[in-house]
Amino acid sequence: MLTVSVKWQKKVFEGIEIDVTLPPYVFKAQLYDLTGVPPERQKIMVKGGLLKDDADWSAIGVKDGQKLMMMGTADEIVKAPEKAIVFAEDLPEEEQATNLGYSAGLVNLGNTCYMNSTVQCLKSVPELKSALSNYSLAGRSNDVDQTSHMLTVATRELFGDLDRSVNAVSPTQFWMTLRKKFPQFSQLQNGMHMQQDAEECWTQLLYTLSQSLKAPASSEDSDAVKALFGVNLRSRVHCQESGEESSETESVYSLKCHISHEVNHLHEGLKHGLKGELEKTSPALGRTAVYLKESLIDSLPRYLTVQFVRFFWKRETNQKAKILRKVDYPLELDIFDLCSEDLRKKLEAPRQKLRDEEGKKLGLQPKSSSKDIDVKMTDAEAPSSNEGGESSTAGQQEGASSSSEKGTHMTGIYDLVTVLTHKGRSADSGHYVAWVKQESGKWIQYDDSHPSIQREEDITKLSGGGDWHMAYIIMYKARFVSM
Amino acid sequence: MAPGPDPNSVGDGAKRDEATTKVPSKDPKKKDDKKEEDLSEEDLQLKQNLELYVERVQDPNPELQKAALESMRQEIRASTSSMTSVPKPLKFLRPHYGTLKEFHKNMAESDLKKLLADILSVLALTMSAEGERESLGYRLTGSEGDIGSWGHEYVRNLAGEIAEEYTVRQGEESSIEDLMDLVQQIVAFHMKHNAETEAVDLLMDVEDLDLLLEHVDRTNFRRTCNYLTSAAKYLPGPDDMLVLDIAYMIYIKFEEYPNALQIALFLDNMQYVKQVFTSCTDLLRKKQFCYMISRHGITFELDPEMVENDVDREMLQDIVNNTKLSEGYLTLARDIEVMEAKTPEDIYKAHLLDGRASSGPSADSARQNLAATFVNAFVNAGFGQDKLMTVPSDSTSGSAGNWLFKNKEHGKTSAAASLGMILLWDVDAGLTHLDKYFHTNDNPIIAGALLGVGIVNCGIKNDCDPALALLGEYIDKEDSSVRIGAIMGLGIAYAGSQNDQIKSSLSPILNDAKAPLDVIAFAALSLGMIYVGSCNEEVAQSIIFALMDRSEAELGEALTRFLPLGLGLLYLGKQESVEATAEVSKTFNEKIRKYCDMTLLSCAYAGTGNVLKVQDLLAQCGEHLEKGDNHQGPAVLGLAMVAMSEELGLDMAIRSLERVLQYGEQNVRRAVPLALGLLCISNPKVTVMDTLSRLSHDTDSEVAMSAIISLGLIGAGTNNARIAGMLRNLSSYYYKDASLLFCVRIAQGLVHMGKGLLTLSPFHSERLLLSPTALAGIVTLLHACLDMKSIILGKYHFVLYFLVLAMQPRMMLTVDENLKPISVPVRVGQAVDVVGQAGRPKTITGFQTHSTPVLLAAGERAELATDKYIPLSPILEGFIILKENPDYREE
In this protein, which residues make up the domain named RPN1 N-terminal (chain B) (predicted)? Predict the structure, then answer.
């Protein structure tokens, strides 16, 4: 008989007797009683190794009073999860792309950054993408010419390629068709294709798409592009001399932000852009007179495009010169006071609702919510309220105005989604870059083939006033509220 | 007795004052004699007097001669104290030096001749031509009076001439007895007058340091030893050993055992260590010695001769075996309130990178999860709890198991082993946690569990040898990943132990023709670690044979580098002992020959600061080679290994590396960041940080990777905010490059290692001692980093765990006589170099007062801020036993 002590975890069991005539398995059974660890999972350290079940005690040389150490638990043995975990590294290339959270860049084909940045900006509009995917190859209606059709198809293909690829896509096909449709983009200078104005590209491309995506019924309502981007303006034309007044409506794809020396902020520029003077023959006076034209927004688009009028034709240098003035723009734009009376009335209820919701998120009672706080906090809320808007975007082809019966309403509040910037001193030179907000809330800078993640506060720094990239065309997305 | 500077100068001044008051106007004289225009009345008087003496000395009348000599001596003695300018009497006697010399030559032997010789000896101080050593010559023929009476400057000059004379006589092999008499006198004089450094210098010059033992006393032995130990760093071998021997003997003589032990450890002389134990009778002090030995990380067995009582010996052995390390570390952690486990996300702090990479990809990335595993392991090292691995696994979510399986294949090895890191030093709990992984049939997991057992036991010795018992079973298993896990685990657990049993089980693997290369590589490495610095012939032979057996193709493999490294580790810091093996290595296949040569050289001279070796290695780095030669990487690392021991050499090495970076080839550039990381390990110097930050954006991705890892190394365990910021920015800069991002994550984990309570620095005890196992661990990782792509980014990422060998709490924990922690106020501040300074200079500057336990950063030193206790070791690092001060009175 030997007496040993066994240390197990932090406990020491003193005075355990070993019957050296019996195999160690018996000893293990003794320990099983004490520790609850089954013998087969016990590991007992003796000099020079583990105690084997069938070992001979005399050979091991355990001395009386020796301290042994036991390792072992009755814990459950680790099992691999039933569902094998899929690792990003194992995924095929396409899925890795979606994992990145943003799509690929576009290769610069020689001064095509104006086109690349335009494409990247427009691609960020999911509704446009879905409209394009519905566009059938064969379904060319008669009123769309061949080149427009080809351009539309090329756009669709390009958008698809961008979504699928990890590496930069070369937009060769698209560029060819674009040049075919709009020969002005084929201008050469020193044997190279010239830099072009991105705004022109943007406008032309949108126009083409709006033509070709018109439903065969060719009714005004079914114009998908117009539904997404179109802004209806109601203008009051007023002649001070004669007191004549008339009103007219028009539809535009973008608002202009005029930059004069008193414009410091987008809002001021927009207001400025909605007012204008024009000369026309006054029937009352029988001569040309100066008319004041004041426009107000009559219906809101899903995507509000604003163009900064940064370029003007400078006669002396014979080129488009650039206004470098810094014009701030917000991440969240409220255009309520640019709306017409009718529209304002329509917007009031949804806006109240939005305020209440945001108040609730802040933990405030609906009544006590003040507008101040709302404005401050909307920055943080933006992505979440965006999601609310997106969930209902599917199938919203119709109804530019918020009066749709779907239960979601426009609020007149817009969130910044894309910025197309220009760097350089004239429209036909320099460099264009697109800055696009992803669904995840991340901002990506698409500098041709190099997408890179940017911080949100850097986006508002693109407001000009230096030689850094400055916003040229920016696009806002409407914020909806469900009633 | 000695002409103290003050009384004399006062006397001088007084005299001058008298003179000027007597004769207010000096103008007439000045006009009279243009030559002596500048002389004041008093000086002129002196000059005339001296001229008179000189004349009289040559007088035939011995009485007059004597009087003149006495007066001359009087004048000289009264003024020799001034050090800033030539004393006036000497100046005025200058023109007469020749005359007097001539006269002395022709003088008959007499007391007067001796007297004149004395004066000439002093005059020679300023007159004698360089190398003539006339001062010494006259001194030897002089009257042998009290040497100090001529002033300090004279003695100093004499010492210099003795040194010269000594070298000359050594060359001629003539007697030096007369010199040694003088040396005796000078040393005695210096030691009495706070000039220990000069006494030591002189004795070193005449190679008779033993003399020092007679002259040191309680008041000056500390300064003397301090100077000796610091000087040892700059002496060529074997003088440095000699100097330290003397220091050791002095410490023993004055019963300053902790310092004696320190030197014994530095000399790696176990006989001395034993002597410290046998000389000391106080059990409490012996406990303190045990703490010091345990920090050094060597295996040391106490025998009955050292500690008689069995119970006491067992307790002391427990301290040496580091069994209480975990407890002490956790005490520190609780005191600083950092017990709360941290997740990798807490370390990445992605929210500070607003927008960037904040929302991760939807699918799990194996690479990123592996990085998170390491970060989790490093950050929660030793705390016994974390949020990934030790969370109790409930059957529904089973998080512990879950995280393990979020790692892919070989990643699971590192994940399972990370448990060992989290439970570092806590053997009982560690084994309990790891046990469940032994029962799966998933080989990578078993391998990880084996490695984990090794990590848990790192630096801890246990009577039952659980690591050996468990791992021994798996060494010869079929699956090579399991074998590697077991072999590496043994290497980590038994580093420095020189365990024969492991040798006999690992050596056969090296020469097993069927064993795969990676198993052989890790076996060689583990043997190198276990026998680190032992110069063991047998192990060396086995590794050499293994190297010779490798085929051409195998020699090109990345892992082959571990074979020469294992060989090098055997000779770590052993200098010349490597030479025989280095000769053998010259016969290797040329593919590995130079690599092996560089590795052996750099390991053998690691931590010696040997300038010649630094130059050798620099020359290697400067060469521009053909493609395929890869030995420059280890050469660059070697540069850092050799130079890292003392501050001056370290700074020089940093500057040299900057040059290498500019002019070196690409493979040299890749190693430079790693070398910088080694030089400043856990010591984030701003200049190095900036260099590495610049390199981390290098166009060559391997340079960038090394720089990033090195950023982690220099900041390891410091929580340095600046490095943390740099790494955060790098993580968004490299968010698309999985490999670089992996490196950034590892570096982030290192910076926050042990939540800032750990250090990787292999140096301790005020940077004097170098722990060989710690250095071995770091060097191994750095060698692995030389080929980042195939080792750390490949499937051998677990080599990162070799760092565990260097991980130590950077704490100072005070315990009472029963080894229970007590809190006392201490001042912690920047250490000041007080070598060679007179008096009792402050040893720290810019200090703050804390109460223990406290953290000590690189270059910091602590001192007790209370007289209530007396520390048992003057080096306040790690565990310090405090004894109550019997003389303490409450105020």
Answer: 50-352
